[in-house]
């Protein structure tokens, strides 16, 4: 385990800190040693994955533990379609691990740069009313808690702790391994098509309940959306993928090169944003293809942005989006990035944004070069007013008192925290704000 000193910053470049020491252990024993060192010296520890969160959840002035040395497959239980992964494994590495085993993740978000530990600990999710977030598929973990004890938590060992540690915000310990319930490999038929915003909102419940996975993007200042409807298919249905040229043109040239150029110009001349968004709306086209699930779920995004996302009750989504539309025009915000809308099943994880309720997710974005910050403030007022719960890895301003009223399992989570980290070895300013002391 080699010590490293560096300045940490997140992917978007919006948060940074200066760890006193960075360690990159390659075994669980190295994490145990780091936590014992922290306790002896009175400092704190913060594990870090890919730093893809938009908050300071990974920031620390103490010891930073990089999980880069803990990657790959630890074991596989093919009889139960389960794999145990080292916690630093990146989501984009999983197809290379799972495909030869005939397995796949049940659901994914549209970004795969995160580590499995970071994605599950912050509540990463995809879309689909029959499917929970990635953390709901965790059947067991090993972690080093705040006392320096290496623990196994699964259906046979302290199972009552699993609803907390599966989505633990990095507050309960340093994950060493994560066991994930997978499914057999499958294909997805993807249909992407333009549709009027008011029509999509009127049919939000119907479209979401009829599809395996439904989501839409709405560019502010326009009347239209781009919908994505994904249908799960068995492997024997056969792939009909996008051609190499078509995929490159759409996902690299349009989604990255052209988008980057357009939003860059708009950040310098905000007045042109409504007209540019309407131009993008007018050239939106329909396409359909069938491919391996991970190739459909994931989109490569290289244009940097800031993001706020809230979970709201599923039925509230149409009202929330309409209120956002009214607010944007009334406040004269010039917003070049789209609003993204998804859905997920209810679950029983203590701090899941879908805990105990079917949920809709509304995400607002700004290009990293935009100077206006009032948009997030105004959007958050609407999202929070609808019993919203903020994504733990995305921008928000709520504190422990406000969050406790929104989560039935909040106090139980804090009891688990008292048990696993009684000395607050894993504390940082973000956790103090959202969980309290």
UniProtKB/TrEMBL annotation:
Domain spans labelled FAD-binding PCMH-type:
15-185
Q: Which Pfam families match?
A: ALO, FAD_binding_4
Q: Which domain of life is it from?
A: Bacteria
* GO MF terms, alphabetically ordered: D-arabinono-1,4-lactone oxidase activity; FAD binding; L-gulono-1,4-lactone dehydrogenase activity
Going by the UniProt record, its keywords in alphabetical order are:
Oxidoreductase
One cellular component term from this protein's GO annotations in UniProt? membrane
Q: What is the name of this protein?
A: FAD-binding protein
The protein's organism comes out as Leucobacter edaphi
